[in-house]
Every structure is written in structure tokens, then in C-alpha cells.
Amino acid sequence: MKITFPHMGSLYIPVEALFQELGFEVVVPPPCTKRTLELGSRYSPEIACLPLKVMIGNYLEAAELGADTIAMIGGCGPCRLGYYAEVQRQILADLGSTLDMVVIETPLENPSRLARDAAKILGRGKLSRVPRALILAWEKLKACESLEKTALRVRPKEEKPGLTTRVLELALQKVRQAAAVRTVHKAVQEGIGELWAVQEKHGRQDPIIIGLVGEIYTVFEPFVNLRLEERLGHLGVEVARTISLVQWVKDHVFKGSIGLYRTTHLERSAEGFLSGFVGGHGLETIARSNELANCGAAGVVQILPFTCMPEVIAQAILPDVSRAKELPILSLVVDEHTGEAGFQTRIEAFVDLLSRKRREAYRGQTQSLFGSRCGFGQY
Amino acid sequence: MGKHKAYLGVDVGSVSTNLVLIDPETDRVLTKLYLRTNGDPIGTVVKGMQKLAEAGEWEVVGVGTTGSGRQLAGVMLGADVVKNEITAHAVAALKHNPKVSTVIEIGGQDSKIILIRSGVVSDFAMNTICAAGTGSFLDQQAMRLGIDIRDFGRIALQARHPVRIAGRCTVFAESDMIHKQQLGHSIPDILAGLCEAMVRNYLSNVGKGKSIEPAVLFQGGVAANQGIRKALEKALGLEVEVPINYDVMGAFGAAVLAKERLQATGDKTRFGGFAVARSSFDSFSWECEDCPNNCEIVQIRRDGRPLACWGSRCGKHQVSSDSA
To answer: CA-CA distance, B90 to B70, in Å (whole number)?
Structure first.
């Protein structure tokens, strides 16, 4: 059994570790490229959102490298994605592909299905290795996130454009190669040190702080968001990413699987704008934008795939947040037709708007959000 | 007399490429060019520079570029400022009228709205997935009716009862327009109807949720069309001003930005001189296969020598701009 899974940013590092530790041979799909997208959009329904299409591309490219089984999450909600495993299974079957699919769902929604699929996986893996595998994967997940968040802080001040991204990639590969928790920790410590060293010696002025909200897949997959975080960083912006995979796992896997996850804190933050869950990260987008305004962020960028229902709802509410909080908000929609030029123009214009505005009003008043009470900088 | 000092602004757009020279003291536009890009931005910039060189003796003391081809024009000319078109249009509008609150810009393939409050851009939007609210839409329909696009606005103003045309989509607008023609509506009424359809489309797509306050400036190539201006005024209930240099506002803004930048830093211009007009430029692109990112690399060469290169994610293949 050669197992593969869809890409989402650096998530492949912990997921690869998880399955390897369980005793499987793992085929990590090649990084998402234009070819991935072409393959994916050729075989996917036109109306499906970009994540489904890119994932199909991932599977097909992994199959070329010998993968025979796909691990994918499923379930009821949080949006169409919950149903994508089924749709993808059907697409692959129509293609005559022999790829098998294992759908991982939360125990509350479909216990028998989970038991069956878990048995399918674990039957061939080594049960005794489960705790060790989970711990290593968890540590790697935390490692990747703290490296990436450090990169977001140093990139606006980097000495040579692109240096942060290179140093980050090297550090991530060290985490990937680490076989024990101890080596993971060492790799993170070293990586963070190297990232801080990227900063210009004669520091520039305080970077502009922009909060990043939106749909989780487009936030995390740089190919899909056209390297949004890098682009902003190169324009001298410190990005406060409000979605954390570590937090997501804590909320939805640890708490959610036993029915303990609540959205009350988000509802409180979104009060006056949105009163409850609307699927996906819609509520988060509103709640976090509101929090970012209260923390003194200069602006907010929302990113979503075209036709993403939860984020479309949020997009319609964001102008109210923007007006009430006097917070400039830019919504960016991506799909397979998104052109780089228009994307870059919008980002540049938005950053220009914020920096000109700051020069007028907030001179010397903005400060780093990291370490502030919002805590978006920490993991 | 010596050469006339001037700042050069260049706006390379998808449909038109505009060049302006402005007076360093008064910011007055000394000369302007409006050229069709015709899918050849390099050739059009070269042609523009030739025409400027023919038009007078200039000493260019600073260069700014904008538009979708701003990077390309920037390396060709040695620009001091390379700015996105939103900022350039806003700066130009503020120069024209410091009290401006709303800038409506409709070009060939994109349209934007820029809100300005107390002299600073406070919000903006661009058309996203459809060109039905842009100049190309009018071009298409004018062609369909066999009318020169330059006469479009004049004829539309003669309308007595503008017809209602479905303007959501260019294709559907066309079938609806044919239908109205067959019902016997006059050409002026149909053209005015098209103007109103386009304005409706623009306001519900680009201007959605934006508070449009006076003074409103209307710029971009489509501002030449009096019918659109009238339809905008009717829909907004506000007076809409078309600045005298409406068609080259982006280039004008770029020139002003170059002036601001150089005056702030005290640097000398990096302008490569009018020799560009005699150089031959070509571009060369390939897909880098050194890593799985497969970046699309574009290299711009001047007289066979690499001038600039972009597209690589890792910074490889980059040519230092000083070597050119």
C-alpha cells in the first residue's frame, strides 16, 4: 500500500511523518504546479471550487509516482469540502483509475465508517506505533507553523528579496527529515535563529501589519493563493495569519471529535455583524477581522476560492466591518482563471493605500501584533 | 534655447499605451500620446519614444511607469518609479482636482472605482471576472452596429427614449440589442440604452457598496464617450467631471509620482535616454525546470543583451539592472 494525500502548504510534512511512522510507504504528490491545476481542472466539474480541482491534480500526479491509496478527510460540513472525498472518488472511478480512497471522518458523524476505514489503514499498519506517530506528526505540525510565522515577521525586513523564503524552505526540509521529536525541536530552534538572521542589520521602519483571513485551503496553499504572503512581505508588509492549523487540529480533531468544540468565542467577536456559523471559515473571517481592527492592524486581506459559499457570505458582511471599524479590507478571489498581473496590482494598490494613510494619520503609532493580546503571532 | 526639462510618464495598458511629458515646475502636460498597444507593448513603447523625440527637444529628468506593462516599460526606459495604476490614477485625479472624492476609471479591459477621502485613497475596487462593464463591451456593440466608436457618444446624446438593454453579459446584450433593433427602436435610443446598461453594470459590479460622493472624476479611454458620462450623471444624480487629459491620467499620475520620488530622495534619474527608440528589444520566455515549481521565466533583451528577467520564484536568472 503506497499512500498519498492532497497538498495544503507545508501540511505534507506532518502528514508524511504520520503515515511513515505507521509503517506505510508514502508518496508525497509533487508540489502543486500549473500542470497539477491543468490535470485537475480537466477532470473536475467546472462549478466546483479550486481546492477540489487542485486536489484531483495532486492525486493524478501522485499516481504517476506509484501511489495506490489516497487519504482524504470528509464528513458533513464544514462546507462542500466534506463531500469532496466522495466526488473525487467518483471522478477517479470514471477515469478508470485504480486509486483506492480512504476517507477520514470525525467519529461523531459516522462512527461505523470511521471504524471501517481506520481498520483498512491500521490493518496493514502497526497499531503499536499509533501514539508515537501521532506525537511526531503533531510536533512537526507545530514546528512548520512556528517557522512559517517567524518567516512572516522577518520577510518585510529581509536583506535580500527572496532570502526568507529560501531559508524557510531549508528549515522546513530539516523538519521533514527529522525522525525524532528531539531532532524536530532542534530543527525549529535552528531554523528560527536563521530566519531572524535574515533581517536587515540597519532595520527599516516598522512594517505595515495586515491581517490575513479567509478560506483555509487558499490561505495555506501558496500555489493557489499566488504566494500571497510572499508578495505582501516583499512589499514590506508583516502578515498576521489568523488561521492556525495547530489550533484547527486542537479545535476540530481533539475537541471536535468528542463534541466539545464550541464557536461561542467567535460569535462574541463577530457580534453585531454575524450571529452564528455559516459554514467553512465564514464566521472566523468576520470574527477575526473585527479582532484585527481592535488590535490595530492597518488592514485586512480576505482570500477565497471562487464560488466558496461561506466566504461569499463573509465577503458580503465585510464592508460593514470595514465601515464600522474604519478598517480597509481587500477581498481576493482565486480560481483557475486568476491572472497574476491583476492580482499583483490589487495587492500593490492596497499596500499603497495603507502606507499613504499611515503616513497621514498613524505615524509611529502602529506596533507589531505579535505578542499583543490577539496572539495571532504565536502558535 | 536648450532642451525643455520634463518628467515622463508611461502607462502601458492592455488596449492603449500612453506617454506624457509634464513640466517640472507647473505639472502642466506638455505633450501627450495615446497609442494602441495592439498586443505589442515593447514595440509600442519604442514607437512612443520615437514620436516624443520627434515632437521636440526634451531633457527627461525623471520617469514613472504604470499599467499592466509597467515592469516591462520600467526596465526598458530606466524608470525611477514603477507604480500600479490605482495609485497613479488617484494621484493624477488629486493633481487635477484636490477636492476629488470619487474617481471612476473605465478603460479597455478593466474598470475601477477609487474613493478618496481627505486627499488619501480610502478604498478601491476593480472589475473581477467580467469585461461587460468596460470599453471592450462598447467596442463590440459599436462594431455590431457598424458605428465608429468615436461617434458613439455623439449619437447616443441624440436619444429621446433610451431603451432598456440587458447588460449583464456582452453576448446577451448583443442578442437583446438585435431584438430591440428589430422592434424598430432608433439607433440613438439603442446606443443610449447601451450606455445605461454599461453604467448599471459598472455600478452594480465595481461600484457595489461604495459610497460615491462628489466631486466625481471620470477618466480612462471610455470617458471620451459623452453618452456614458450622461448615463453616469443620470444614475448617480451627481455632476461628473471629465478632466481634460482624461485619456492619459495614468501616465500623468506616473510622471507626478516620479517627480515626487526624485524630489524626496534627491536622486538623479535612471532614464536611459531617447536611445531606446533606436534599440531593438525582444523577449524570450521559457519554463525553468530546475525545480518542481516550473516557473515561467521571461527575459527582456536589448540589442541581444539581457536587460531584465522575471518570473522566477527563487530569484534565479535575475539580471542585475545596473549591467544594462
So the answer is: 16
Q: Are B284 and B298 in contact (CB under 8 A)?
A: yes
> Is A73 buried (19+), middle (13-18) or exposed (0-12) by CB count in 10 A?
middle
Q: Which of B23-37, B124-138, B283-297 has the highest mean pLDDT?
A: B23-37
The C-alpha atoms of residue B306 and residue B324 are separated, in whole angstroms, by: 8
CB contact under 8 A, A166 and B314: yes
Cβ atoms within 10 Å of B218's Cβ, excluding its own: 22
List the single residue in B with minimal CA-CA distance to A231.
B313
Please name the residue of chain A whose CA is at the shortest distance from the CA of residue B126: A346
**What is the C-alpha end-to-end distance of chain A, expressed in Å?**
34
Q: Is the confidence at residue A63, as pLDDT, over 90?
A: yes
Mean pLDDT, residues A242-263: 83
By C-alpha distance, the chain A residue nearest B87 is A349
Distance CA B68, CA B63 (A): 16
Confirm if A118 and A169 have CB atoms less than 8 A apart: no
CB of B195 within 8 A of CB of B163? no
Would you give the distance in Å from CA B168 to the centre of its chain? 23
User: pLDDT, tens digit, for every residue of A66-92?
Assistant: 999 999 887 666 678 888 888 999 999
B73 touches B41 (CB < 8 A): yes
Rounded-to-integer distance, Cα A85 and Cα A71, Å? 9
DSSP string, A58-111: HHHHHHHTT--EEEEE--S-SSTHHHHHHHHHHHHHHTT---EEEEE--TTT-H
Dihedral sign (CA A353, A355, A356, A362): positive
Residue where the block lists cell 453604467: B199
CA-to-CA distance for A17 and B66, rounded, in angstroms?
Answer: 47
Strand order across the beta sheet in which B120-126 lies: B120-126, B111-117, B102-106, B216-219, B240-241
d(CA A201, CA B57): 45
Cell numbers standing for residue B231: 448615463
Over the Cα atoms of chain A, what is R_g?
21
Nearest to B84 among A319, A352, A357 (CB): A352
* Cα B141 from chain centre: 21
For this complex, say whether ipTM is above 0.85. no
CA distance A161 to chain B (A): 8
A11: Cβ–Cβ under 8 A, 6 or more apart, which residues?
A: A141, A144, A220, A245
Contacts of A352 in chain B (CB under 8 A): 83-84, 86-87, 121
Characterise A375 by phi-psi region: left (phi > 0), alpha (psi -120 to 50), beta (else): left
Residues B138, B152 contacting (CB under 8 angstroms): yes
| Residue B246, pLDDT above cutoff 80 | yes
Domains of chain B in start order, with CATH, are 4-91+250-278 (3.30.420.40), 98-242 (3.30.420.40), 281-323 (no CATH)
| H/E stretch holding A317 | helix A309-325
Indicate the SS3 state at residue A363: coil
Contact yes or no for A30 and B129 at CB 8 A? no
On chain A, the residues whose CB falls within 8 A of the CB of B293 are 31, 33
CA distance B29 to B188: 35
Distances in Å between the alpha carbon of B171 and those of B167, B178, B246? 9, 11, 29
Distance CA A371, CA A367 (A): 10
Dihedral sign for Cα atoms in the order B157, B161, B166, B170 = negative
